[in-house]
Amino acid sequence: MEWTPGSLPEIAEPKTLGLEESRLANIKPYLQGYIDQGKLAGASFAIMRDEKLAYYSAVGEARIGESPMDFATVHRIYSMSKAITSVALLTLYEQAKFQLDDPLEKYLPEFADPKVFTAGSAALPATRHANESITPRHLMTHTSGLTYGFEGVPHAVDQMYRYHKIGGFNDSLEEFSQKLARQPLRFDPGSSWNYSYATDLQGRLIEVLSGQPFDEYLEENIFKPLGMIDTGFHVRPDQVERFANNYARPKGPLEIFDQAKSSEYLSERTFKSGGGGLVSTLPDYLRFAQMLLNKGELEGERVLSRKTVEYATLNHLPGDRDMEQMGAGGFSESAFTGIGHCLIGSVCVNPAAAPNMQSYGDFGWGGAAGTRFWVDPEEGIQCVFMTQFMPGGRYPIQEYLRHLVCSAIID
Fold this sequence. Notes:
The protein is α+β, with helices and mostly antiparallel strands. The protein has helices at 21-24, 27-36, 81-94, 136-141, 156-163, 173-181, 198-210, 214-226, 282-293, 306-312, 397-406; strands at residues 42-49, 52-63, 67-68, 75-76, 115-120, 125-129, 246-248, 255-258, 279-280, 297-298, 301-302, 339-341, 346-348, 363-366, 372-376, 381-387, 389-390.
C-alpha cells in the first residue's frame, strides 16, 4: 500500500475487501442529510479494511461560505486525544517504566494519601482517607475517582474543580497535577467509573517517566513514526487555511462556536492537554487507528507490540463489568450498557446488550465536537469520522454510521 503522510491511500474496489459498494453508497446521502437540514456544516468519513481504503466521502463545508470540507481539513479532536495519550503511556509500560497497579504516588508524590469526599459542600467538605491509592490502570480506565468539573454538574467536587480552575490553559502539567492532587476524589479508586482529567494526568506521568516534555514525547514516539504530520497541540501557520470553524446550534441555525481565524488553537498553550487538546486530520487519525488494527505497527514502524495491543484492548474494568454496572453516569463519549473500558478507550464486551450493532472487542472513542474512531479487530475494519459541531453527542450520527458500515459487510 502506498500511503503518503497527509493524504489518503487510493480507494480500492470494495468488493475485493468484502464490502458491497451499493450499500456503502448509502453513507454519503446519510451525511448529506445533516448538511441539508442545517444540523452540520460539514463532515468526512473513511473506512479501511485489510490495510486498504474501502470508502471515503466528504460533504458540506469546513467554514460555511469559505471552504469545503475535505480530507486535509484540520479538526479539533478533543477527547480523541485520549487514545493517543494512552498509547504513548503504553510505550513506557513496554519499557518497564511502571506497572499498571503501582500506587500513583510512586511517580507523582503529590497523590499520596488521597481523600474521598463524603459530605458537606465545596466550601466545607467532609472527607475520609481513600481505601486505596490511585493507579495507572485507574487513570487509563477513568475509575480513579477524579472528575472533570464540567459546568452545570452540581457535585461538590466538580464545583471545587471549577473554583480552582483545574485544567486551566496557563498551567504546566506539573502545576496541573499539584492542583488536582489537592482536591478530594468523588469515590474510592476502582469502585466506580467517571469521565475525568485522568488522561491529562497520564500526560504528566509520561513526563516524569520519560524525562521529556509531553508534547516532545508524542512527537518523537507517536507522530513522527506514524507520519502524523498534521497532529499537534496547536494549529501551525501553514495549517490555518485548512482549519475548520467549530459550530453549534444554541437557538436554531448554525452559529460559530470557535472561529478558526481567531481560535486559541492558533497559538501554543502552556497546558498540553492529553485528554482533549490535540488537532488532527482524517488521514493522520486513520494512520493512528490503522497502527492499532495492525497490532502496533504501520509501514514498518512499530509503536507497540502485538501482545501489548491485545492486552491493552481487553476490558480492564474490575470483574469484566460494563460501564453501566460500574455505576457510570453523566457525560461520556460512549454508551454504557454492554461497553467496558480498555486501556485505550471503550470496548464492546456484550454486542447484544450494546445499543449499536458492533463486534465483540470493537474499541475506540470520540470527541466533544462529534469526531469518532473505532477499530473492529474481528472484521479487520477501522473507521474515522470527522466533523466540528458542539455538542457532538446531540445527534446519533456515529451510531448510525456503525449500522451503515456493518450492513455493507458481505464476506
